[in-house]
Design a protein that fits this description.
This protein has about 300 residues and is an alpha/beta fold. It has ten helices and twelve strands. It is globular and about 55 Å long.
Length: about 300
Amino acid sequence: MVRETHLTANDFVYPMFVQHGGGVVQEVPSMPGVYRYSPDTLLKAVEEVVELGIPAILLFGIPKHKDEFASEAYADDGIVQNAVRQIKRSFGSDIIVITDVCLCGYTSHGHCGIVSEDGIVLNDATIDVLSKVAVSHAAAGADIVAPSDMMDGRVRAIRNALDENGFEHVAIMSYAAKMASSFYGPFREAAESAPQFGDRKSYQMDYANRREAMREIAIDIEEGADIVMVKPALAYLDVICEARRRFDVPIAAYNVSGEYAMVKAAAMNGWLNERDIVIEILTAIKRAGADLILTYFAKDAVRWLREG
């Protein structure tokens, strides 16, 4: 009766991975229970998400070919574009489709932007490509586009591009405070997006800087973000809490792959009760102020919550 924070299925967004091919259901070794699907098997997996009452998925694509300019990221017949069309034909408004807008999984070098000959990530050139990616996703039927690149000015550019192409109704969920974190390792295996040289510290945030995170969030809101995200979640509850206190927009938090993998590994070794620790973690993220929790635990969490 007096519990202050309650989890429901409506709190969750379930991340999913899609690749070319047919009949593919490939488990990610470092993320037990998480799979890469081909478009046909993805539809069956999305059906399960819908039946559980989870309102949204976040879709990541693994392209067939990579190049220096991330060409497949904005191709009309790209893996994400085709998958979104099929999902929307099958499920319509029963599922909200959020698409990741970034280049790291589509570039041969694995960075989130266009890279110069001397290895510098070019902010403005990248924004032009990201805008094309966002428009292509919207044209395929995406409800929300989620730029995760952390380039300066990309939210405004994407908002302008969407509006100019008749997609004023498509929302932007900005990865506004995305830290240069060590918690992303398993995801980079799942999405085949590890950088081939250097790191991403020149454009992702220093994880030591909470005040800077607030400035980044404020800028993205000013540029037109409808939802702002803190990533990762569990080690950044203070950032989520501060963002909730300062900003009157929906706050999303990404319970990322490394956080997922640590719990899975401990549970598989019998060191933790997986059900109890997952519900405690997700409750803590919501208690800190998150309106939306992106988590690979979403399906299991809903089942456990139903069991009571």
